[in-house]
Amino acid sequence: MAAKLKTAVLGATGYSGLELARLLGRHPRTDAPLLLRRSAETGESDRHAAGLPHIFGNSKANGNSPVQPFSWSALEQRGVELLFLATPHAVSRELVPEAVARGLRIVDLSGAWRLKQEQHRAVYGFKDANAQTAAELTERAVYGLPELNADQIPSAALVANPGCYATSVILALAPLLSAGIVDCDRGIISDSKSGVSGAGKEPTARTHFVSVADNFSAYSVFGHRHTGEILEQLALNSCQLIFTPHLLPIPRGILSTIYVYLKREMTSDEIQGCFHDFYKGKRWVRIFPASSLPQIQFSVHTNYCDLGFCLAQDGRRLVLVSCLDNLLKGAAGQAVQNMNIMYGWDEAEGLE
Amino acid sequence: MAAKLKTAVLGATGYSGLELARLLGRHPRTDAPLLLRRSAETGESDRHAAGLPHIFGNSKANGNSPVQPFSWSALEQRGVELLFLATPHAVSRELVPEAVARGLRIVDLSGAWRLKQEQHRAVYGFKDANAQTAAELTERAVYGLPELNADQIPSAALVANPGCYATSVILALAPLLSAGIVDCDRGIISDSKSGVSGAGKEPTARTHFVSVADNFSAYSVFGHRHTGEILEQLALNSCQLIFTPHLLPIPRGILSTIYVYLKREMTSDEIQGCFHDFYKGKRWVRIFPASSLPQIQFSVHTNYCDLGFCLAQDGRRLVLVSCLDNLLKGAAGQAVQNMNIMYGWDEAEGLE
Amino acid sequence: MAAKLKTAVLGATGYSGLELARLLGRHPRTDAPLLLRRSAETGESDRHAAGLPHIFGNSKANGNSPVQPFSWSALEQRGVELLFLATPHAVSRELVPEAVARGLRIVDLSGAWRLKQEQHRAVYGFKDANAQTAAELTERAVYGLPELNADQIPSAALVANPGCYATSVILALAPLLSAGIVDCDRGIISDSKSGVSGAGKEPTARTHFVSVADNFSAYSVFGHRHTGEILEQLALNSCQLIFTPHLLPIPRGILSTIYVYLKREMTSDEIQGCFHDFYKGKRWVRIFPASSLPQIQFSVHTNYCDLGFCLAQDGRRLVLVSCLDNLLKGAAGQAVQNMNIMYGWDEAEGLE
Amino acid sequence: MAAKLKTAVLGATGYSGLELARLLGRHPRTDAPLLLRRSAETGESDRHAAGLPHIFGNSKANGNSPVQPFSWSALEQRGVELLFLATPHAVSRELVPEAVARGLRIVDLSGAWRLKQEQHRAVYGFKDANAQTAAELTERAVYGLPELNADQIPSAALVANPGCYATSVILALAPLLSAGIVDCDRGIISDSKSGVSGAGKEPTARTHFVSVADNFSAYSVFGHRHTGEILEQLALNSCQLIFTPHLLPIPRGILSTIYVYLKREMTSDEIQGCFHDFYKGKRWVRIFPASSLPQIQFSVHTNYCDLGFCLAQDGRRLVLVSCLDNLLKGAAGQAVQNMNIMYGWDEAEGLE
């Protein structure tokens, strides 16, 4: 049997990092991952992770933390080949140049390397120590949406794992845009709703239970960072899309309701065919029969992106519904899927 | 002091009926309402109502039900002048002709008398005993949205209380459409989300806690009954609006996110002005400052409809957010507001 | 008409403070309260309060905060007679001596002045500037549970408003202990469960939505601060009671399940009679018929404490269930009830 | 490789049945299970199961139901050896005699065969066609709690899978009672709380989202059916235990807070040792370090029963906390664990 891949997760105490740790911990082709935190992270989160026996197994429940402070030497000692970054984008932006220089392969779950176009990148306000290196890495980075970019991922040194919202929107629209049947100039609207884990583990007034429960709200209207990814991957201009995120009173899951106008009158069968053709052989996308719509419960705790649609009687107006688990297909699951492709394994390995 | 108005609530064991009973029970100008159920209603709901001491007060907590079977003689004996119907639309359709003939005034919370146009009414499949009477009553019925139709309500014999979704959508759009600034042909989209009480008290697979909690889903896409009301009140044709309802995992509250394209470039101040002008002096609509959006928590347990908006940088694309409590401004509260207007009282009486 | 009472609320941005502000804002015998925050409180909470139009009314929704920094001169200028403290206990402990010296009457919602016995007070670790004054005020403070201490409240300068858990446990047990029918030495157990607002508005890892939703946990076992209040008010020793708090995934409400063994075999009617005798004429306690138990939904958003019980077939083992809204009967509502009694008004004024 | 075991699940459309179908569908030693429903079950549930692509896989999402009506010939044709019953107890009571006569081995998830003593069985009101056969099967049935009865399970024809509440209570108390350190006559109290899936899939007024959300309630006080199991397995008499179930507003999970008095003063280390000794080598019980308590989130979606405790300073009063997933360790997971033991496989097979 081949030696197992040595991996590390930096930011293993956040929601995505914990999911990654859990997935890698039972992946048949990887060793138990090295779990790291930035030294600045509070011991509180660390103790919290240590106190989660359901994640780290019974033997480790009695106290000593499995999450260690980050250092390059810790990575070297362990012989890590693949580094997962579940860190804020500024941290990823800072660490990746050295990591690549050291020969590590990287799957970055942050927004640091997803955007090719300066105009979309501006919202992040990156401050790069070495602008040229950053520009080169931006060029080399592969947007890790396997259903679209599977051919570039195997050879990638740096995979930019897509945003959770972006994954749900892009996967719903790509088949239709690729088929050229959407009247983009009439405007595409994605009304997207996410569970609270998407807002991160930091306790804030906004994530307080009493603020979220029995509530629902829109936020970052005309200004969410995932907008740029969607536009770039779908080759849309910023006037062709309105993307509105909302906060759902549930722990996890995303549902995007997407509105498009078609260039010509079409039938449900044609739309259905368009999706089936595009996702033929794709393991982690499920197409629902016409008029049967996905719900968040169906895909939560799985790596699936579920897609369904309703076509108006006039055959011109289409409502798409796209669901996924923001921590799996929207983050850690997709990161593992990317790893599987990077190393030539079955796309579903460790994800079923 | 003037004698108090005598009212009755038929369907007092449903969610809207219970809210009405509660509101009328403490309204300064009405007697304690006569609470009625159709004889067909199960004793279960009845016992449930009886067992709710928080609604009917301490003295009635010890058993004998305050909800009686419906009969015309019960109404007569009590001297009821105003009858609230919190019944299925078929029941309202059946009872209203006789009620009007008997000289009762009616506020009907069902969809039975909201629609003037046959094309929109078709989805209800009404079976009228006397088609001519039904047609006449349809003509005479006033759509009870006080912010739009306050002049017709004082003299109305039959007020058709608007649907909860419809109220949230119409109040958000009416000022803009009235000002003629919306490009209707480019399409208006209302992505609406409602708490579960909107689906009624009947236990079904769909309203089971395990089906709703941690979940979110779209339903009745291109086919919800409230669509007709919205089109009629806003004078839109069916190709100009997409209305998509969703089920939120919360007990009560509606939020509609509404997308419109403007005919010309505008400023936030202009939009703000448009709303303030239209709702000047209207007690139960709150306009939020630009870019400050309502959330469901702000209006739940009140009779307010909260309105806010964000305008895109191009000044042409507008996202509206409209929130209300589906059982109050969306049902029982609006019914009381209508009563207040019907009898010439202050619109806010009994609702603060 | 008599002049209205001038009140102030310090800590008006916390959950209890907001409820108080709301209740006093519509109380028929008080002016709009002066809303204050300690200068140390972040502007964030302040802005949050300002942004809550549902609390402060439409006219104030457009920006300028109604919550001002605390100062003695602000109180004087307004002519405040009654000061509500919705502050941490250390702050109450610090401010009350001067407030009393200035002739203000006080209702303190914190735990600062509830405990007479040093042994129970120790868990708070008070650091008093003037130990003698503190001792004198401790002596003069009245434990503001109106159903037990209504005779001492009218003349009190300093009312120590009870803890939310303590209210639910004491009101359930007082009638039985007063009747001398409980076998205290066999042990009384209160298994209590509270909604999250009881944990305060501070965002922490523990109050994060993702930590609370779909979860349930016990905390502070054998060590919760409310234990002392319960023991003192019921004249129990610490071996006779186990009090275990739990965190419920709901915003508000407390349910305590309380287990007692009776000294002799009794009937349900006797128990029922014991409760009815004890709470005769008490407006805010509701006794449920035998075997009909209160639920959290019945008392939330009211000032009621609901009490019910089941007696075992052997007539010796009794399960009590006590429910209330932790922010109303467990905090702000009870504070208003205390005010009503302090000023000789009807106990229910402003609370219905 | 050995041929895989052929299994069937009757009642595959209920919550436990669905979990079983899911677990068996990916168990390495069983074929895809034959999924059955009683012919009386409505097609609604059936369609619901069919519509759950996340359970039955992508290929089966397009319509034809995988759940067939029950018949003995269907079992024979498939060559089923092991039959899981996820049926109401009356159905299990009726089918098991013939199933055993036909040489099938059975794991019954209902309460039909759990109780040896007539006094506890009375609450079920069984009506057996053949009283003698029923008595013999009652005698032969093994109570399938592997941590207690692992020696009897391998040879059992009929395994009575324990109740969810009972599992949580018995596993917490067995080590202490076995060690003889509990003062049983002073009374043991289990205050237990369950998520809503424990109440079954049938939509009722009680399981309606609006009845459960933001609520919490006790039920079946002094009368829950699981009481008998607990008493029998722990050899207690009915005066020694009070068991009070409550309904939590969460989909799944049980937490029992259990109160015991010890015969003598003990240390936390002694208690800890008692648990570790008793559960040595037991794969599916996790003992928490002293004063570190399990929460429902830690064990949900796993087959673990988590146990923790706090000892009072007097060393005589003990609060135990026991958590598990009611559909896994409390039902389907434990059923698979029993199967693993019946066939001599590793206890954890298919459950990790």
Produce the secondary structure layout.
4 copies of one chain form a homotetramer.
Chain A: E1 7-10, H1 15-25, E2 34-37, H2 43-50, H3 53-56, E3 67-69, H4 72-78, E4 82-85, H5 89-101, E5 105-108, H6 118-121, H7 131-140, E6 142-143, H8 146-149, E7 158-160, H9 164-178, E8 188-194, H10 209-212, E9 217-218, H11 226-234, E10 241-247, E11 254-261, H12 268-278, E12 285-287, H13 296-299, E13 305-311, E14 317-324, H14 332-342
Helix pairs in contact in A: 1-14, 9-11
Entry summary:
Chain A has 352 residues and is an alpha/beta fold. Chain A is 33% helix and 19% strand. Chain A is built from 14 helices and 14 strands.
Radius of gyration of chain A: 20 Å
Overall shape of chain A: it is globular
Major sheet characteristics of chain A: 7 strands, parallel
Provide the CATH top-level class of the largest domain in chain A: Alpha Beta
What is CATH's topology name of the largest domain in chain A? Rossmann fold
Question: Can you list the strand order of the major beta sheet of chain A?
Answer: 3-2-1-4-5-7-6
The overall number of domains of chain A is 2
Given helix and strand content, the structural type of chain A is alpha/beta
Q: Tell me which CATH architecture of the largest domain in chain A applies here.
A: 3-Layer(aba) Sandwich
Q: Ranges of chain A with pLDDT <50 over ≥5 residues?
A: 43-64
Mean pLDDT reading of chain A: 92
